[in-house]
Specification:
23% of the residues lie in helices and 42% in strands. By secondary structure, it is an alpha+beta fold. The strands form two sheets. The protein has a six-stranded antiparallel barrel. The protein has a four-stranded antiparallel β-sheet with strand order 9-7-8-10. Strand 1 and strand 2 form a beta hairpin.
Length: 234
């Protein structure tokens, strides 16, 4: 009888431990940078270079409480420190659909997985995917030619433009840059567009590599706000 009870106890302990790990993995998988300008909030998925995490995505974020949304939007826009968020539950079907969906989120001042301070917990919000793309493992091909174009995705919000490196297996780093632009986009919907210039990419995430893009699209005062060069694990 004692042996049976011990087996049941161990089985329950393993189940609880695996559930805890799964919850932690879910949070780590979908951690995002929280960015904004002109009252808008949007998020950029932080890639961890694992099989379940090999995608690049940008999402519009709206907090259910308008006053809270406006407060967080001001903090994000006017602070030099990064903010991050973690959705409680999220799946790739939501990301691929492009439809708005409801979700509870935690918001952190600083990086959620590196001593960030939680400032909102289980807050009601809605999210809408602006862009989603799967990152595929490159085939080993000696004839593979590297791009002759520097490529960054851009999201404009007010007089700010946010630039995001187009992450690939050959460019395995996340580089997020904020820039000023001459023409403000007041009260317009957020959208993602591709900016590119015919200049040899440095594959390093340096601002120097963005000079041609800045000149071509009239961007100035470029500043790196996030650079992640984690090693791939696949």
């Amino acid at each position: 009888m004692v042996i049976l009870l011990r087996k049941i106890y161990l089985a329950l302990l393993i189940l609880l431990t695996s559930t805890h790990i799964s919850a932690a993995e879910e949070q780590r998988q979908f951690g995002m940078l929280l960015l904004g300008g002109d009252g808008h909030l949007f998020a950029s998925h932080i890639i961890q270079w694992e099989e379940k995490n090999n995608f690049q995505a940008f999402l519009e974020v709206k907090l259910a409480d308008l006053k809270t949304h406006q407060t967080i939007a001001r903090k994000v826009e006017n602070n030099q420190q990064i903010y991050t968020l973690v959705p409680k539950k999220l799946n790739k079907t939501d990301l691929k659909s492009g439809e708005e969906f409801d979700v509870k989120i935690d918001v952190f001042k600083g990086q959620f997985d590196n001593a960030g301070k939680r400032i909102l917990e289980s807050t009601d919000a809605s999210m809408r995917s602006l862009f989603y793309r799967q990152i595929h493992k490159a085939k080993k091909d000696k004839k593979k030619k590297y791009s002759k174009f520097e490529k960054y995705y851009a999201i404009q919000s007010g007089k700010k433009t946010f630039l995001f490196n187009r992450v690939t297996d050959y460019r395995p780093f996340e580089h997020v840059v904020i820039a000023n632009n001459q023409c403000a986009m007041k009260n317009k919907s957020l959208e993602v567009r591709m900016l590119k210039s015919k200049s040899q990419p440095t594959y390093s995430g340096s601002l120097e590599s963005l000079k041609a893009i800045a000149d071509k699209y009239d961007l100035n005062d470029l500043r790196t706000i996030y650079l992640n060069k984690k090693k791939k694990s696949w």
